[in-house]
Amino acid sequence: MTLSMSHILIVDDDDKIRDLLKDFLTDNNFLISTAVNAEEALEKLNFISFDLIIIDIMMPGMNGYELTKKIRESTLVPLIHLTAMGETENIIHGLEIGADDYIGKPFEPKELLLRIKNILNKTSKKPNKERIQLDSLILDLKNGKIKGGSKDLSLNDNEIKILSVLSSNPGESFSREHLIKTLGFTQERTLDVCINRLRQKIEKSPKIPKFLKTKRGSGYVLWID
C-alpha cells in the first residue's frame, strides 16, 4: 500500500478541526474517516483496519489518553495525539501509554502531514522488534506477553529470542543452523521444542501454521500480515 492510499481515522469532538483535517488530508490523497468521540472511534475500529489514527486528547466522556490505552489493548496502529496541553509531563504520558507522536494545538497542517508521512514510512518499512501483531494477537517481546487471545499467555526467554530473530526480516527464511548458532542453543532439539511451543501459543491450528512456518530445505519463516 502506498502512503497516498493509507486510511486515517480522525477522532476529535471539534467540528471545525475535524473538518479542516479531513479536507486537508483528503486533498493530499489520504482516505479519511472521522469520529466525534472515543466511543464512535472504537465502534469503527471493530469493523475497519486503519493505517493511522489522530486522537484529540481533551474530549468529553472517554478522553484521548483513555482511548489510547483501549486501542493499545488490541492493535499496534500508529497514533498521533493532538493536544492543547503542552506541558512536558502530558506529552511524556501520552508517549508512555502508546502514542507514536504528538502535535500541539494550534498546529500547522503541513507539519502534521510531514509527521504522518514520517510515521507511515517507518511502519511500512521497518518491523517492530518489541511488539508483533498476528491477526488479533499482540506479541509483546519486551514484557514477554501474548495478548488478544482467549487468555493472556507468557513468552519465555528462548521464545522471545526466536521471535526477535525471525521478525527482523518477516517473510525471509532462517536456517536451523543459523538459528541454533545465533541463539546459542547447544542441542537441535531445543530449537524444535521452542518452535512447537510457540506454535501452540500463536497458531489457531499449530499443525497447519499460518505465521510460524517451516520452509522445507531452508528453515523457518515468520509471516506477518
From TrEMBL:
GO terms for molecular function: phosphorelay response regulator activity; transcription cis-regulatory region binding. Residues 7-120 form the Response regulatory domain. Keywords: DNA-binding, Phosphoprotein, Transcription, Transcription regulation, Two-component regulatory system. Transmembrane segments: none annotated. SUPFAM superfamilies: C-terminal effector domain of the bipartite response regulators (SSF46894), CheY-like (SSF52172). Gene3D superfamilies: 3.40.50.2300, 6.10.250.690, Winged helix-like DNA-binding domain superfamily/Winged helix DNA-binding domain. This is DNA-binding response regulator. It comes from marine metagenome.
